Amino acid sequence: MKAYELAQFGIEHVQRVLMDDPTPGPGQVLVKLNAASINYRDYMICMGQFAPPEDLPIVPLSDGAGEVVAVGDGVTGLGIGDHVSPLFFPRWMSGDALGDERAVSTGCEVDGCLREYGVFDEQGVVKCASHLTDEQAACFPCAGLTAWNALVTTSDVQPGDSVLVLGTGSVSIFTVQFAKALGARVIVTSSSDEKLKRAKTLGADDVINYRDTSEWGLAAKELTAGRGVDVVVEVGGTSTLGQSFKAIRRGGHIPIIGALAGEKMDMLVYDLIGTNAHVHGISVGNRHDCQAMMDFVDQHGITPVIDQTYGFDEAADAIRAIDKGAHVGKLIITI
Ligand SMILES: NC(=O)c1ccc[n+]([C@@H]2O[C@H](COP(=O)([O-])OP(=O)(O)OC[C@H]3O[C@@H](n4cnc5c(N)ncnc54)[C@H](OP(=O)(O)O)[C@@H]3O)[C@@H](O)[C@H]2O)c1
């Protein structure tokens, strides 16, 4: 089968290879992967910047989707023709990860989705929502589940709540879509007026250009008549957290997801004490929540925002593109 491998760090080392076709063992399914999507983490892994895998080579990209084409002995919940996505954490089934549930992640410690076929444990995949193409389904396992975890699992967003979304990257755009479907009011920030126009077409109620409005946290708070937003979905880090604390209402939720604007947290303890905010570290999510997200996606007919689709031959260009930050939503590779 055709595949890509990362043999040493650097995008130039993401190389086309031929591999043996895999065979499913007991409890496993063989999936013909038809699409993969790119997350910022995939770029960082390829560059050796994020939890670098100890054993190279690996097949990159955590997220993909495809069709079950063979099943091993003892598989009961899946059959040939089912469309599935591998889990980001194939061993994390439910609840908190108190043991080694997160020791293995797809596209890092085990091979990812930039290949024609993959063998996965039956419990290591979820069925895709029925209205999604494989290109669309490939968008959800990391970015979608992270947004779901931030909004639903940890912040319990209710109709009428206000949610502040930072930037227009892939997690943020899923946050907009899920928050709107949950009945929340959504405020989006971006460095680009063009992207803010796009965010409006996706349902954003209010938008703020964070380049033009340095006190965007206060601006968001003013949009809630001074009460503060119920949830800030934090993807920035160092240089955004201060404003996020200015935006949050007393007792609101700040799920911490990313470090696009720096990874050292420099904050006043009094920000936390004064706001009574609940700050949650987010690590994508578990199988139970992934299935709940897929059910919600099915129920609401949500389709992800795909910025650009690349051919299999253009995989390295696609991974590079995530670092340029020109996209709104997801970058996809068809296989
Ligand atoms: N903890 C987890 O489980 C988890 C899961 C997924 C991702 N992440 C992390 O979350 C972050 C976002 O991931 P992603 O896939 O959404 O990335 P992405 O698609 O690459 O997001 C890029 C966008 O982030 C926005 N951005 C950059 N700096 C910003 C700033 N200072 N303030 C506000 N927005 C800013 C920009 O939006 P504009 O162009 O509109 O300004 C940029 O286009 C990354 O750090 C990623 O590693 C963590």
Structure description:
It is a single chain. With 335 residues, the protein is an alpha/beta fold. It folds into 2 domains: 2-143 and 285-334, Medium-chain alcohol dehydrogenases, catalytic domain (Quinone Oxidoreductase, Chain A, domain 1, Alpha-Beta Complex); 155-281, NAD(P)-binding Rossmann-like Domain (Rossmann fold, 3-Layer(aba) Sandwich). Helices cover 28% and strands 25% of the residues. It is built from 10 helices and 15 strands. It has helices spanning 40-46, 134-137, 140-153, 170-181, 193-201, 216-223, 238-247, 269-275, 287-300, 315-324; strands spanning 2-6, 14-18, 28-38, 63-71, 83-86, 117-121, 125-127, 162-166, 185-190, 206-209, 229-233, 248-256, 278-281, 306-310, 330-334. Strands 3, 4, 5, 6, 7, 14 and 15 form a 7-stranded mixed beta sheet that branches. Helix 4 (170-181) links the parallel strand 8 (162-166) and strand 9. Helix 3 (140-153) packs across helix 4 (170-181), helix 3 crosses helix 9 (287-300) and helix 6 packs parallel to helix 7 (238-247). The longest helix has 14 residues, at 140-153. The N and C termini lie close together (11 Å). The relative contact order is 0.16. It binds NADP nicotinamide-adenine-dinucleotide phosphate. NADP nicotinamide-adenine-dinucleotide phosphate binds next to helix 1, helix 3, helix 4, strand 9 and helix 7.
